[in-house]
Design goal:
Order of helices and strands of chain A: EEHEHEHEHEHEEEHEHEHHEHEHE
Largest interface: A-B, 62 and 62 residues
Distance between the termini of chain A: 18 Å
Oligomer: homodimer
Number of strands of chain A: 14
Largest sheet of chain A: 12 strands, mixed
Strand content of chain A: 15-25%
CATH topology of the largest domain in chain A: Peroxisomal Thiolase, Chain A, domain 1
C-alpha cells in the first residue's frame, strides 16, 4: 500500500470483498430494497425478550450467515472488526462473543461499517492475516430508547429526523479473490460545525462528508465522474441535499451519480420515515444487501462508499454540546 | 510483519514508542505512582461544569501534551486511534475534535489503549503512514454515574469492586525511532465465563487475560521468564490473583514478574480503593507515566503489556447478562 496525499491509502494488492450478508427488520422489509436482503424479520424482537438482545441476535446471525455463505470456517478468520450504536457497543460484543475469532471493537457511530472495511483492508494488505469480518448493526427501538424518547411515549418527530434502521450487514474481506476490490481508503477527521439538533443528524454530518469527499478527490486526483455511484451512509434526504449543495460550492457536481443509503432504504412518501434511514445498520445492510449485488452484476463497476457518523450521546445533548461528525470512505472497484 | 500462530503478529520493522504523556486526577495523585505522571489535577472538574466535559479536557490536554513533547506538529500524524468508557465514546470524540488528524474511534472497554497500540503498529509497519497517536481516558465520577450509582448516594462498595481511574494516557507510535519497540501484538478473542457481578470485573476479565496470555506464549514460543515484567491493565487485586492461579493450572508460573496497572496505581491499604484501579485511563496512564519511564531507564527491557476489557453496560447488567471479557497484548522491547 502507499499513502496518497494526507488521508488516503492506495492498496496495490487490494483485498476482495468475498461475501456479504444482511438481515433487516419489518420496516426495512416494507421498503424498496426488501428483495435484496437475505432475511427480513417479521417483528422487532425476533423471539428475544428485549430490543437489545434482538439487536445482538441480528448481528450474530448476520455474521454466522456471511461465514456460512463463504464456505470458510471460523478458524479461517484472523479478525472481526465490529461495532454498533448501543452504549459500550454491547450489540456486537454480546452477539459475537461465541465467534472465537480475534475481536477488535470499533466505534465510529454510523461510520462504523466503513471504518471496519478501512481497518481490515490495511490489516490484510499489510500482512497481518488473510481473512477478516466487518460487521455493524443498529435497531430502531433500542436506539430510540437510548438516544431520544421511550417509544411508548409516541411522540412526534420533526421532518428532519431520521429513522434508525433495524438491521445488520456483514462483509468478508479476503486477500484471495477476484473482486470487487477495495482499492482506496480515505480516513476522515472529526468535523464539528456547531449543529446541536439531534433531530437533524444529516445536517450535522454533511460537513464531515464534504471534508472526506473533497480530500478523497484531492488525494486520488479523481473527480465525481470517475465513479458510477457515490454513496453516503445515512445523511438522509436533508443531509443529502446539503452535501450536494456544499460540494457544488467547492466546484464538484455530484448530483447525477450520488445517493445515500438512508434515502435508498425507505420510501419517504409512504413509510413516514421523514428524512430517511440512519444507524450503523443502514450503510451496513444497504451495502451488504443491495450495493454488493449491483457490483456483482456489474451494474456498478466503481463506487465510492462513504459512511458518516454523528459522534454524540444523550448526555452530551443534555449538556448543550454540538454534534461532531466523521466520515470514512472506501473505493470499491470490480 | 508476519503472522505467528493464530492470533499474533510479529513486526519485523517494529514501530517505536516515540513519546508518551499522562494526566491523572487527585486520587491518583495521592497514589504511589504520582511522581511519574506529567500532570496531577487538584480536583475532578478541572474548571469544567460537568465530569464528562472534564474527562474530554483530560484526554484533549494529554494528547496535546504528547504532541508538544514530541516536537512533531499535528500535520505530521497520519492517524489518531482513541476511545473511552463513556457512552458512544464522547470523551475522545469531543476531546479530540479539534485535532485535525484522521480519527479512528475504537471501543475495547479497558483494553482500548492496547487495542489502539495494536492497530497503530499494524498500520505503520504495513505502510499506511509514519506517525500515529494512541490515547484513552476514563473518569471516576463519569463512570460511576454511568455504570453504577449516583455519587451523591454515597453507597458502599464491596471489597471486590474497583476504582475507575480519573486519567488519560497517550503514546506516539512512529516508524522512525530507536525504541522502545512494539515487537509483537496478540489480538484477543471475547471470552465469557458467565460472571455477572459488575462489582467484580477482575474475575470477569481474568479468563480473557489467561486466554490471550497462553495464546501469546504459544504463538511466540516464549515463556513468562522471557519478560522482565508482564503487566495487565486493570484486573485489580482480585483479578490478579485469579490470573496467577489460572496460569499456574496451565503450567505457567507468572508470580515473580507479573503485576497489574490497577494494583500499581493505588495504595490499597490507605486509599480505600478496594480491589484497585480500573478504566481505560488506568492502563493508559500507568503505561504512559510509569512503565514508559522504566523502559527508557532500562529498568525494564522487555515487557508484555496486556490490557483487559469488560464488554458490558448498565442495561445488559439489568437484563441479567453476564460480562464478556477481552484482552489484547503487545510486547514492548528496547
Amino acid at each position: 500500500m502507499e499513502k496518497l496525499g494526507k488521508q488516503t491509502v492506495k492498496f496495490n494488492n487490494p483485498v476482495t470483498i468475498l461475501q456479504t450478508a444482511s438481515i433487516v427488520g419489518p420496516k426495512e422489509a416494507d421498503g424498496p430494497l426488501a428483495q435484496y436482503f437475505d432475511n427480513c424479520l417479521e417483528d422487532e424482537f425476533w423471539g428475544e425478550k428485549t430490543w437489545e438482545k434482538a439487536e445482538s441476535k441480528i448481528i450474530k446471525e448476520t455474521v454466522n450467515s456471511v461465514i456460512a455463505k463463504s464456505n470458510l470456517s471460523n478458524s479461517d478468520f484472523d479478525y472481526c472488526f465490529a461495532g454498533d450504536l448501543l452504549n459500550q457497543c454491547i450489540s456486537s460484543s454480546f452477539g459475537l462473543r461465541e465467534l472465537n475469532i480475534p475481536f477488535l471493537g470499533i466505534f465510529g457511530a454510523c461510520s462504523t461499517f466503513v471504518e471496519a472495511m478501512c481497518l481490515a483492508s490495511v490489516f490484510l494488505e499489510g500482512g497481518a492475516g488473510n481473512n477478516a469480518i466487518c460487521a455493524a448493526s443498529s435497531h430502531f427501538c433500542s436506539a430510540e430508547k437510548q438516544f431520544r424518547f421511550p417509544l411508548e411515549l409516541g411522540n412526534q418527530r420533526p421532518q428532519s429526523a431520521q429513522w434508525t434502521v433495524t438491521g445488520s450487514g456483514a462483509a468478508i474481506l479476503s486477500k484471495n479473490g477476484s473482486g470487487p476490490f477495495i482499492t482506496n481508503a480515505t480516513f476522515g477527521k472529526i468535523v464539528d460545525m456547531g449543529i446541536k439538533d439531534s433531530n437533524n443528524m444529516g445536517a450535522a454530518m454533511a460537513p464531515a462528508a464534504l471534508d472526506t469527499l473533497l480530500t478523497h478527490f484531492k488525494d486520488t486526483g479523481r473527480n465525481p465522474s470517475y465513479y458510477d455511484a457515490i454513496i453516503t451512509g445515512d445523511l438522509g434526504h436533508v443531509g443529502k441535499e446539503i452535501l450536494i449543495e456544499l460540494a457544488q460550492t467547492k466546484g464538484y457536481n455530484i448530483k447525477s451519480n450520488y445517493n445515500d443509503c438512508g434515502v435508498l432504504i425507505f420510501n419517504q412518501a409512504t413509510q413516514d420515515t421523514h428524512s430517511g434511514g440512519s444507524g450503523c445498520g443502514c450503510c451496513a445492510s444497504v451495502f451488504s444487501g443491495y450495493l454488493y449485488k449491483m457490483l456483482q452484476e456489474k451494474k456498478y463497476k466503481k463506487i465510492l462508499l462513504m459512511a458518516t457518523g454523528a459522534l454524540t450521546n444523550a448526555t452530551s445533548a443534555q449538556q448543550g454540546e454540538s454534534i461532531p461528525g466523521i466520515a470514512h470512505a472506501v473505493s470499491i472497484e470490480i
